[in-house]
Amino acid sequence: MRKKQQEKACRAVLAVVIGVLVPLGAAQAAEKVKVGLMLPYTGTYAALGNAITNGFKQHVAEQGGTLGGREVEYFVVDDESDPSKATENASKLVKRDQVDVLVGTVHSGVALAMAKVARDTKTLLIIPNAGADELTGPLCAPNIFRSSFTNWQPAYAMGNVAAERGHKNAVTLTWKYAAGEQAVAGFKEAFEKAGGKVAKELYLPFPNVEFQPFLTEIANLKPDAVFVFFAGGGAAKFVKDYDAAGLKKSIPLYGSGFLTDGTLDAMGGSGESLLTTLHYADGLSHAKDASFRTGYATSYKMQPDVYAVQGYDAAQLLRSGLEGVKGGKLDQAAMIKAMEAAKIDSPRGAFTMSKAHNPVQDIYLRKVEGRDNKLVGIAEKALADPARGCKM
Ligand code: PHB
């Protein structure tokens, strides 16, 4: 009799243990978040893709390998900054790997294709660089967020800076694709509103770096300022060529800050004293910037740049979303709501999301001093992209 009672009690305890364990096990399986990193790891933007990845993983590591209490599983694709491969690459991550969130990319043309896949499949997309104005303009959508900037933002700020510095007549030069064209449009909008004139817009195909004929044309046109959008390996080559052609001494060169972010080592001294505008700088006094830089240097044995910041903030934004989910199952609507309300404690300074899901942020004026883009001041305070065409 006693033995029977003991057995019964044992069975009851076992049932309770199993009852607890089974639901816990089920919750744990649902807790994972599958992240599809679609970034350039080869080509002229390779260093940018790596910096974004490093920044993203740095924040996840700070959170003990989790985000919002969920284990992070990565699926990684090299998009080569090639728009013609973008739809297939993004579809693979969504359909084959079944990622919960796409994180990418650097190149505006590739990001535009990713946004279409995200829209069609209702997958969450966080853009950690690509500035295509459309992404948070006419193509804005509840499931599309950006942790970086629009092409308009830093370029518009530079249009005002150039005008304030007394320039009247500018020539622009960039790669002929969304990022370059929209940066030029942003610069021109502010510069011409302030009384300047863009006399000529020069373009070359992405990612060409045969700058010589354009430098000759600029020398002939003799504008009193030049504005450019270049980034990555191409930016370093351009600044070196501009200097070697003797133009740096005679015609001031300005750019969105991508020109000199993460590229100064490759330029030698050619970038010295250039002025650029961007949502990040060396010499900011935010506590978050100090801890971020120390962590980054310790993990990766190099200094971070704006791309690393954008990757880090993409992870912070995703964490905010996941923290808004109650229960084990990923609830996209709850995530979106939490991401819209997030205040991101960024190394660049805290920022919030606009209604179109783009950072509202300070744009800094910076000056190259040695290996630094030294903070000069705030060019535009809490600048929001106008989000033209966004109906949300
Ligand atoms: C872009 O294609 O949107 C782009 C690429 C590199 C940058 C900035 C913007 O540094």
From TrEMBL:
SUPFAM superfamilies per UniProt: Periplasmic binding protein-like I
Claim: Transport is one of the keywords in the record: no
Keywords in alphabetical order: Signal
Top-level taxon: Bacteria
Signal peptide: 1-29
Leucine-binding protein domain span: 32-369
Signal recorded as keyword: yes
Similarity comment: family membership: Belongs to the leucine-binding protein family.
PANTHER family: LEUCINE-SPECIFIC-BINDING PROTEIN, PERIPLASMIC BINDING PROTEIN OF ABC TRANSPORTER FOR NATURAL AMINO ACIDS
Protein's name according to its UniProt entry: ABC transporter substrate-binding protein
